[in-house]
Amino acid sequence: MSDVEVFDSRRCELGEGPLYGRDGRVWWVDILRSRVLWRSVEGDASGEVSTSAHVGAAVPVCGGGFVACLPEGPVRLVPGGGEQRLPGYPGDTGGLRSNDAKADPAGRLWLGTMAYDERPGAGALYRLDPGADALTTVFTGLTISNGLGWSPDGATMYHIDTPTGRVDAYDYDLGTGEPSARRTLAQIDEGHPDGMCVDAEGGVWVALWAGGAVRRYTPDGRLDRIVALPTPLVTSCAFAGPRLDTLVITTASVGRPDDPHAGLVYAHQPVDVVGRPADCFGG
């Protein structure tokens, strides 16, 4: 077990998707309040950006700014306000919303969906290649498409469909963006795997919804350590700071009005491991 401290005390209903930007700020989303929040690593400045609808994730763009993943698909957040639509989700998006999303090391945007009522099989995982005019459907039949990550060499992709309780690993072709040879990295029975990140040594850090913790797994699937949080709805994590040596952890307060620890963003110092810079979308 390890200690954590509060990084940001603004209470999120459904905090998610933290990342460390090239601007020296930590960014994350509050999905159900349609906002993207940020705070400087030093903690002396903070702010937020409103979105036009529920925002499942914000992914940095290599040329600057962010892509926000909304219920109908991704949009580019325009400096000074406004949104520029990118290719949307195919088919009827009624009752669905975006969930976790990330860029891969080659600059592709990966984004998943889920149903608001969490009905089984309604979600999918998509890929948007830079310059493409349509999303590529990669996986269908998902329930809560969630955590994404890649090994430091880009040869392994990780993905979580939360109700399965698994962290899945795939061989990954960085040249084509095609995953193959699915296998289970970890099966989790205490809490539900949510968002995740990968550190510089290839360790996989998994946030546990209803589990009150973040777990680190080695690349061969061995449980390495547990970081305990003071609230159960732990949603995601990412490394931040100039040395990428601080693990930032988001949580949710939905359904927990009397929990003063719920919905805050926390920080943990692993001491012996650092993260990797956030990959950016090249579109």
From TrEMBL:
UniProt-annotated binding residues for substrate: R97, N99, D117
Domain of life of the organism encoding this protein: Bacteria
Cofactor: Zn(2+)
Any one Gene Ontology BP term: L-ascorbic acid biosynthetic process
Occurrences of domain SMP-30/Gluconolactonase/LRE-like region (ranges): 14-252
Co-factor note (free text): Binds 1 divalent metal cation per subunit.
InterPro entries tied to this protein: 6-blade_b-propeller_TolB-like, SGL, SMP-30
Metal-binding in keyword set: yes
GO molecular function: calcium ion binding; gluconolactonase activity
Active site as annotated: D194
Key words, A-Z: Metal-binding, Zinc
Residues where a divalent metal cation binds: E16, N146, D194
Family note: Belongs to the SMP-30/CGR1 family.
Name this protein carries in UniProt: Calcium-binding protein
Provenance organism: Catellatospora coxensis
